[in-house]
């Protein structure tokens, strides 16, 4: 029987393992930590009974992922839940841009001209998203499944974010788009600065920004249950330091970053691949603050009180300036902050009137300072009286994020800098971005297309590449 070892149990590693097991490959997944999940782990971090997500929290690409949707993970315990509003972006005026799953409802709360433009930009993208998903959640070099829809999306995605934002005159629409674009964790002013914002807003209208009931850990728990039903195994507490540890399986898939792959593969890695992996760039970091808050956050804007995700950064121009600073290694006075109120969709994460609040700021790569107060300042800015409600906090610096998960190099939780080059050619320029150059050995992490997100598509495509290798033998 053909055998495979997958190193790492994040969504991509488990997706790769499941795809191989579906084809009759005997698969072992090896996880260095005692708990599976990578960036999808969850647990009590502040007070007993409050469930916090370690890293990934909202899953627009997860619920839209063609591969995850094909697996029937609901049978294995996964349930997607949604808050009243998908996303809100408050402004100092007290107004807010609000993303509802309904495009028309979102547009109706904008000034009339901006609402018409919002419908024009996102209406067709959202309605076409399921046709686009295979193309935008895959490698650059492929035969498009929906060439016309992809061409339309690509023509908009290639633009710098400020160019796209010029279509709206009001601050609400501009800020709402800008906050979504800021998920790129980098400069928004260059080519493809619009890509991630367009995709996240479109998928929000198509599928929402849901959470997993009980915590993000439920995603990988369900995937592991399916893998075991297919005959695969998952072993925790097993750190892989070198390829020689693996007893010569037919296939090896690494759910690791390129730098870790160099360490594991050593001299077997072709020199050209080794050089490219060593040059792979990581981007700005996250600084995470988990909070136990009594009574929830007293947002000035009422829609923020119903939104699962709240982006804090002020105007579009403020967001662009803060992201430019962090991408250049400078800590902004007012960083972009993402706040998660998962308990609004999933009350099981709370304990009575104590609620878990998830927040992180974008900070420079490897940032050594303490960003706790800037995070709290940004929340207080839009929710006066918030600080007295805090009952406990749990802080993780960029260095702590890296030590907790070695794939988060320097605190970069996206798996690599989202520069134009790396958006198109990650992790190296090659026809098969998953191949390492060692026969039967593949990279399947967020450092490969399509990048970050709990979608499993990098693992799926890496497994497909591995299966083609088996067919050629």
UniProtKB/TrEMBL annotation:
Pfam families: NAD_binding_8. InterPro entries: FAD/NAD-bd_sf. This is Dehydrogenase. It comes from Kitasatospora aureofaciens.
């Amino acid at each position: 029987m053909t055998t495979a070892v997958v190193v790492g149990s994040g969504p991509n590693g488990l997706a790769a393992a499941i795809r191989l097991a579906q084809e009759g490959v005997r698969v072992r997944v090896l996880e260095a930590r005692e708990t599976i999940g990578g960036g999808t782990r969850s647990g009590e971090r502040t007070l007993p009974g409050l469930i916090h997500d370690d890293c990934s929290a909202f899953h627009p690409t997860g619920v839209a992922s063609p591969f995850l949707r094909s697996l029937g993970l609901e049978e294995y315990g996964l349930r997607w839940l949604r808050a009243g509003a998908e996303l809100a972006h408050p402004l100092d005026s007290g107004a807010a841009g609000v993303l509802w799953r309904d495009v028309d409802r979102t547009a109706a709360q904008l000034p009339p001209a901006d609402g018409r433009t919002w419908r024009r930009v996102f209406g067709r993208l959202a309605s076409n998203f399921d046709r686009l998903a295979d193309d935008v959640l895959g490698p650059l070099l492929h035969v498009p499944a929906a060439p016309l829809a992809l061409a339309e999306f690509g023509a908009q995605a290639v633009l710098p974010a400020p160019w796209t934002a010029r279509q709206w005159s009001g601050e609400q629409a501009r800020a709402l788009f800008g906050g979504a674009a800021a998920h790129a964790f980098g400069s928004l002013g260059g080519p493809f600065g619009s890509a991630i914002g367009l995709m996240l807003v479109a998928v929000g209208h198509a599928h929402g920004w849901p959470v997993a009931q009980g915590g993000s850990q439920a995603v990988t728990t369900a995937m592991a249950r399916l893998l075991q039903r297919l005959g695969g195994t998952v072993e925790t507490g097993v750190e892989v330091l070198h390829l020689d540890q693996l007893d010569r399986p037919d296939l090896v898939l690494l759910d690791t970053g390129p730098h870790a792959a160099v360490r594991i593969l050593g001299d077997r890695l072709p020199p050209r691949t080794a050089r490219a992996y060593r040059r792979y760039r990581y981007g700005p970091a996250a600084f995470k603050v988990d909070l136990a808050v009594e009574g929830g956050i007293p947002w000035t804007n009422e829609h923020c009180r119903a939104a699962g995700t709240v982006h804090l950064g002020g105007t579009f121009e403020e967001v662009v300036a803060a992201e430019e600073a962090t991408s250049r290694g400078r800590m902004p006075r007012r960083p972009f902050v993402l706040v998660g109120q998962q308990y609004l969709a999933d009350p099981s994460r709370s304990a009575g009137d104590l609620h878990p609040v998830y927040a992180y700021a974008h900070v420079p790569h490897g940032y050594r300072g303490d960003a706790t107060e800037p995070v709290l300042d940004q929340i207080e800015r839009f929710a006066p009286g918030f600080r007295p409600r805090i009952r406990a906090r749990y802080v993780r610096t960029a260095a702590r994020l890296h030590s907790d998960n070695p794939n988060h190099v320097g605190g970069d939780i996206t798996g690599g800098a989202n520069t134009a080059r790396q958006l198109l050619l990650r992790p190296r320029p090659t026809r098969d971005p998953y191949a390492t150059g060692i026969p039967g050995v593949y990279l399947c992490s967020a450092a490969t297309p399509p990048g970050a997100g709990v979608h499993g598509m990098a693992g799926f495509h890496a497994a497909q590449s591995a299966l083609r290798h088996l067919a050629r033998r």
